[in-house]
Amino acid sequence: MTLLTYAEVGERLNCSPWSVAKLTRRGELPRIVLSPRQHRVDEADLHAFIKDRKESTR
Fold first, then answer.
1. Following CA atoms 54, 19, 43, 25 in sequence, which dihedral angle do they give, to the nearest 10 degrees?
2. Helices (H), the chain
3. pLDDT digits 0-9 by tens, 46-55
4. Is the pTM of this model over 0.85?
């Protein structure tokens, strides 16, 4: 299991860490709470999040 910071997730999604935090607060992207100020995202959950949002271009 690889855990990513919000900054690392933001780099992969081309968005800010604040946007990643909003996604996790809304429950759209699962998070792991290490402490009240340290949250991480499992890389597998990020891949599933991206896969679920892919659109087919036909």
1. -100
2. 6-13, 17-25, 43-52
3. 999 999 998 8
4. yes
pLDDT digit string, tens, across residues 38-48? 999 999 999 99
Q: 12: which 2 tokens?
A: 């992969």
**Total Cβ atoms within 10 A of residue 18:** 10
5 and 44 Cβ atoms separated by less than 8 Å: no
In this structure, which long-range contacts are made by residues 41-45, counting pairs with CB atoms below 8 Å and at least 24 apart in sequence?
41/3, 41/4, 41/5, 41/6, 41/9, 42/1, 42/2, 42/3, 42/4, 43/1, 43/2, 43/3, 43/4, 44/1
3-state DSSP helix/strand/coil % of the chain, to nearest 5: 45, 20, 35
